[in-house]
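User: Structure tokens for this complex, please. No commentary.
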Amino acid sequence: MKFFWEARKVILPAVLVYLVLKAIFGFHLVSGYIEQITLFSFIVILTSLGLNVIYGYTGQFSLGHAAFYGIGAYISAYLSKSLGVESILGFIPVLFLSGVSAGLVGCLIGVPILKLRDDFLAIATLGFGTLVRVILDNSDRFSEILGGSRGFVGIPRITNLELAFFVTVFLILVTRNIIFSRYGLFWRCVKNDELASQAIGINTSRMKLMAFSYGCFLAGIGGALYAHLYTFLHPSNFDILKSIDFLIIVIVGGMGSIVGTIYAGLIWVGFIEGLRIALPADMLDLRWVFIPLFLIGLMMWRPYGLIRKGG
Amino acid sequence: MKALAVENLEKGFGGVQAVDGISFSVEEGETVGIIGPNGAGKTTVFNLITGFYRPDRGNILFYGKNIAYLPPHRLPRLGIARTFQNLRLFGKMTVFENILSAMLVQGRYNLFSAIFRWTDYFVTESKAEEKARKLIEFFNLSGKEDQSADSLPYGEQRRLELARALALEPKVLLVDEPGAGMNPIEIQGLVQTMKEVKKQFLLTVVIIEHQMGLVMNISDKIVVMDFGEKIAEGTPDQVKKDRKVIEAYLGEEPL
Ligand SMILES: Nc1ncnc2c1ncn2[C@@H]1O[C@H](COP(=O)(O)OP(=O)(O)OP(=O)(O)O)[C@@H](O)[C@H]1O
Ligand SMILES: [Mg+2]
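Assistant:
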């Protein structure tokens, strides 16, 4: 198929990386904890890529990205638990459905809020994120198994190296193909100048909605993989702080850079988890001193992100 | 045949009646100049024609079809393209991307063709790229394809905006003060370019311009506006002698 032939330059190294990871994990060269955060970093990359489509490429500032990540996580967990899904094969439709649901929710709330500009959009997405958090906190009122503020427990562990890695690689390729097509070009036009975009015939509301829904779809997939990696969900995992994590990754990696998001996602997860290992337990809170310092330094060194040197 | 006709167009902003019952028409293949003092309502007329403003009253006919209430993004598809008085390029995108995006608006392949790289993706893209290169060459921007638009000198940015509008392959082109901020030599070049463009692309042109040398030189007909109204219309020679026009311009640059 053309898709895979075109992407051979990415797929071959990816397969190599996979084999190396497989060997490392297979021979237990690293702890189960490291293995888990490696998979988690793929999920973070995928979800951040969704936000990069929304914010980095299309210029729509969203403070509610974690809500869509959470929607994907909860829907997938609910589906797999109530349907008794345990195998990867059975999980794939659940995964897809969770992504689509998050995308649909994004589309529905996008219709009214994407008309708003910059700071208003930020407030609206922040409001939506808070709303989702409140709903998740009270989710046990709708269905006991969702767990409400006690958390959603007993999700089957399905996400493994193969699933997390290849789903992420596949969706990075899909995203890349969209970015290097007329749609990606129009997204960037919208970000650069909305009026000029309309003047050349771009339906800007439609393009914004498309980017937003697609970005939320990626977040939903990320959330579903997360739920079946950690097997436990808590509403606090999907609040504004999490949204800001994704935002930081997008900005650190570079607005509108896929490769940048990949690096920044790896660095972010590595840095946070690395500090968790490096710092003694009673000084763990020092992370929140190191991380801001790191960010300030980085922004001074590379204001346009890791990859690009200039605007 | 009338390519464009504006009938009794009105548009007010709060207390200001920016356009106050304007009517004029543009024959196919004609070049019509719109002149008038600052604030006369010229740009507002363009914004009404291109759907950026909704008229309070009146009709806008494009080859007989009323287009007065269409959203702006529908007009390029019909065959109307415009440039802006204050240049609106996609500043952080390259020269090539600025043109290509306009080319691809009409390009027909869907999201699945893009994702799975089906044949129509490649066919459409390569055709558009080829046309974009030709247009870049025509506008003397070769070699600058990969520079970001906002890194170009002002005159070249103007040319790029014109090229982007032509990438839409319009029937009618609306240009708003293309000569603004240009020196006399650059204006000479612009006159030349506009004439060539018209011949090459078989265009109908409406041009707003303060530079009399330019607008009188290329227009078949001039519409003069003042305080939202049309105060004169005719050939450049007729308009130059019109008493009302001279009055309106009193204290401004002489014609
Ligand atoms: N969006 C708007 N809101 C409020 N007033 C407006 C708006 N657009 C135009 N106007 C007013 O309408 C009047 C006509 O403006 P317009 O820009 O059409 O003039 P113009 O003939 O193009 O002038 P110039 O030669 O300076 O470009 C002005 O008084 C202007 O302030
Ligand atoms: Mg004007």
